[in-house]
Specification:
There is one protein chain. The chain has a single domain, classed as Orthogonal Bundle (MetI-like fold). It is 76% helix and 0% strand. The longest helix is centred in the first third of the chain and has 40 residues.
Length: 294
């Protein structure tokens, strides 16, 4: 028996080695573009032009970052995005978790209609023009609080949460009710702590959604001092950056258009890239468990 196990391990070793090499190369293909963007943002024009696949620049410079901080309203965009993030994510979580919990409850009057109306929004919407007119009538255009309130719950995330609630054994709820637990005690002290994986997963989704907020801001907000970070990044990359770079390069040869673009991209994506590794284990568990039941 022991000999068979050793033979099986020997046969598995080459396969595991091949799989490990393949996954390592795949990871390298995914990571290298991000690393190359960072290198481009701290390299001089001459060095990066001669060796775009360098491992590290010989003459690194932070001039593109300094210029972006001083010559653009990027820091103002950070503040606006954090405002939307801090107020918007709790609002999204409240609406979505409450909706998912309501859909997971046993049959109650009107439940089928309630669930149907929620699922209906996944396939049909009123469109951008009616939404803009509604926000205008509510005097919420050109205001950051309007961007916060514009995006409430998410149907797909609510379904994930519903599935997670339904995967919790019914005996646990029945036992709590026998001990005298009411609805609020049952929800906040028993069921909600068990849903931490899916809550962290949905929290990560909403955080990325809010951090990448640009389309609604572009439509609803006209004042540039109220733009979110992504709108400012879009404006930098597609409209003003080449003009800025052409003026600056004539004075200082240390950076140019590509460096400025990459620096803006790095500043924008860095917080999410730092956050994700700490929530990855919750993310994987939440997706797997939350999708068991439909």
């Amino acid at each position: 028996m022991a000999g068979k196990k050793r033979g099986k391990k020997r046969r598995q070793a080459p396969a595991q080695l091949v799989i490990g090499i393949f996954l390592g190369l795949l990871a390298l293909l995914v990571v290298f573009p991000f690393y190359n963007a960072i290198l481009a943002s701290i390299s001089t024009q001459k060095e990066f032009s001669l060796n775009p696949l360098m491992l590290f620049p010989k003459e690194p410079t932070l001039s593109p970052y300094t210029y972006l901080m001083e010559a653009t309203n990027l820091m103002k965009g950070y503040g606006n995005t954090l405002f939307v993030l801090v107020l918007g994510v709790p609002f999204n979580m409240l609406v979505t978790v409450a909706t998912g919990y309501a859909m997971a409850r046993p049959a109650y009057p009107g439940k089928k209609l309630f669930v149907f109306l929620i699922l209906f929004t996944m396939y049909f919407s009123g469109g951008m023009v009616p939404l803009y007119l509604l926000m205008k009538d509510l005097h919420l255009t050109n205001k950051l609080i309007g961007i916060v309130l514009l995006y409430g719950g998410n149907t797909f995330y609510a379904i994930l949460i519903r599935n997670f609630f339904q995967s919790i054994p019914k005996e646990l709820e029945e036992s709590a009710r026998m001990d005298g637990a009411g609805e609020f005690t049952l929800f906040f002290r028993i069921l909600l702590p068990l849903t931490v994986p899916i809550l962290v997963t949905v929290l990560l989704f909403f955080t990325v959604d809010r951090w990448n907020e640009w389309f609604n801001t572009m439509i609803m907000v006209r004042s540039s001092d109220k733009w979110t970070l992504q709108v400012i990044l879009r404006n930098i990359v597609f409209t003003t950056l080449d003009d800025m770079a052409s003026r600056v390069v004539s004075v200082e040869k240390t950076y140019y258009s590509l460096s400025l673009k990459m620096a803006a991209i790095v500043l924008t994506m860095a917080p999410v890239m730092v956050l994700y590794p700490f929530t990855q284990r919750f993310f994987m568990k939440g997706i797997m468990v939350g999708s068991v039941k439909g």
